[in-house]
Amino acid sequence: MVIPPATRLRQLIAEKGIVVAPGVFDGFSARIALDVGFDCIYMTGAGTCASKLGQPDLGFATLNDMREHAEMIANLDIRTPLIADADTGYGGPNMIARTVAQYHRSNVAGLHIEDQIQTKRCGHLGGKQVVPIEVFATRITAAVLERKRLGSDIVIIARTDALQTHDFDEAIRRLKAAIKAGADVAFLEGVTTEDEAREACRLLAPTPVLLNMVEHGATPSWTPEKAKELGFKIIIFPFAAIAPAYEGIRKGLQQIKDTGTTGISVDFTPKKLFTLVGLKEATEIDVAAGGNLYDGV
After folding, report:
1. Which residues pair with 84 in a beta bridge?
2. Average pLDDT rounded to a whole number, residues 272-297
3. Contacts 24+ apart (CB under 8 A), 11-20
4. What does the pLDDT look like over 90-99, one tens digit per residue?
5. Same domain, residue pair 197 and 274
6. Are 212 and 188 in contact (CB under 8 A)?
7. Staple 183 to which of 176, 178, 208, 244, CB 3.0 to 4.6 Å?
8. Going by C-beta distance under 8 Å and a sequence separation of 6 or more, which residues neighbour residue 284?
9. Looking at the DSSP assignment, which residues form a beta bridge with residue 185?
10. What domain range includes position 282?
């Protein structure tokens, strides 16, 4: 029997090590992360906006955009839990409850809800604004109540951006309010120093704390080992797939423009691509049903 993804995520968090979740932005990048063998993956909101909508992470994505994308990724392999960005929850308490319900039904293992205003932006851009602490607490309360109503194990992660808009003390105050409201994990966005990171993990203990490892953003580049030493329990790498994809795609397209050839490696065949995204499984289903459509593929 396959363990439900949310239950599996809770098990990973309870173990001694740190949960490492590379950021994926579409089905192909998710398949690659699964093939590499990660125990958990993360659907980045910025990557979803960029790949699905071709837009910056400025609140363009709706609940339907994010849920649809998350459902596709989460169900590629339900043995590997997916943590997904849920932005601000997309409205008041009823909309937040709807968000949790839809993510739960989509097999998402965990989601994070933040305290930015509805017209939010990437956490590593300037000019952010946050809602009052009471509104943030209400958002988390609505999420927790819906989880309980559903009998779900989905992990509720409370994220604050108040470190940039206010100060460290206010950010911790907000996360403590979220924990009191029932959040399972705390997410302090935009940590800037080791001392800040250690103190946050100490003050929020025993609640697990998540580190958002955005390279070249507000936070220094730390490895999972360093993050664990600082006290974090989960580390996500939102740009892990989309940055190399940008570099590789641009290089290939530029080569076509300059030379008329792609320069693609000879071992990257159509069969290799299709094998990575489920050719073997599709063939097995066809054969088990008595078909032979894929003979000779």
Report:
1. 43, 111
2. 89
3. 12/39, 12/40, 12/81, 13/155, 13/184, 13/185, 13/208, 13/233, 13/234, 17/228, 18/224, 18/225, 18/227, 18/228, 18/232, 18/233, 18/234, 18/235, 19/233, 19/234, 19/235, 20/224, 20/235, 20/237
4. 999 999 999 9
5. no
6. no
7. 178
8. none
9. 157
10. 265-296
Judge if pTM exceeds 0.90. yes
Q: Are residues 73 and 212 in the same domain?
A: yes
Q: What is the pLDDT of residue 123?
A: 62
Look at the chain and count its residues. 297
Confirm whether 257 is domain-assigned: no
Q: How far apart are CA 126 and CA 217, in angstroms?
A: 11
- Amino acid (one-letter) located at 92: G
> If residue 102 lies in a helix (H) or strand (E), which one and from where to where?
helix 93-105
Note the pLDDT tens digit of each residue in 127-176. Answer: 789 999 999 999 999 999 999 999 999 999 999 999 999 999 999 999 99
CB atoms within 10 A of CB 11: 13
Q: For the chain, how many structural domains are there in total? A: 2
Q: Which residues of 62-91 are buried (b: 16+ CB within 10 A; e: fewer)?
A: ebebbbebbbebbebbeebbbbbbbbbbbe
Q: How far is CA 235 from the centre of its chain?
A: 10
